[in-house]
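task queued by scheduler; priority normal; single chain, no ligands, no partner chains; default sampling; output format set to structure tokens
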Amino acid sequence: MEYVGCHLSISDGYVSMAETAERIGANTFAFFIRNPRGGNSRKPSQEEIAEFNHATEKFAPLVVHGAYTMNLCSDKEDVRNKAVGMLKDDLELMEQIPGNYYNFHPGSHLFQGIQAGTCFIAEALNGILDAGQSTVVLLETMAGKGSEIGQNFQELAAVLDKIRCKEKAGVCFDTCHVWDAGYDIRDNLDSVLDVFDHAIGIDKLKAVHINDSLYGRGSRKDRHAKLGKGTIGLEALERIVKHPALAGKPFILETPCNLTEYQQEIALVNNWLGEA
């Protein structure tokens, strides 16, 4: 079974997201539990959760996204503590929609150094992750702006190696980000996936953000583009989607699209996969 979807808004409610996803042809989707710039999470009722779980039985796995402002490796202790609180609250809510993924940006070490940053992230995760939870957390590959952790696979490996509940952690592979970070997924995809496998293990690649990029390889810009409207291009994106190492992974579109455009992109990706 192949899973293709996009980012949806939680503003209209959990059940409405599932209805929207079905209407546009998605069989998975992503959403922010809380405002992506931080703030309180939207607390659904038990009735809403039950309806949502029923509506998404055929959609799983979902790839829920953590807030962008959640920086587990900040140079300020109060910011790190706030991030830990956000992560803990989010994962408690995730257990009410069991069996899904929780994806987040690892954070920026703010020039404390990569070693300090990876240690802070792992320490936070080790204080929260539990072998009995159903949610798997995913560290996202990053474009390399500023002091972001995750601009190369080795940095993510350094975090994962320090996590005790290893079966509850993996990676979300963002095509725009890895391209902007310098990995040639357009002309040397097999080589990039081999590097990932050697550094982390391909079994840890659990989900894919399938995006084109406005800027060239190695730009470190992180500017997503619609499929075929950027520097990666449709041919390369099709090869990524159809690569056997990524079979069965949820593909989440984070392109700058409205719902009609998302419906068109989902149909395109499904056509590549032979799921149309």
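post-processing summary
- The radius of gyration is 18 Å.
- The longest helix spans residues 77-94.
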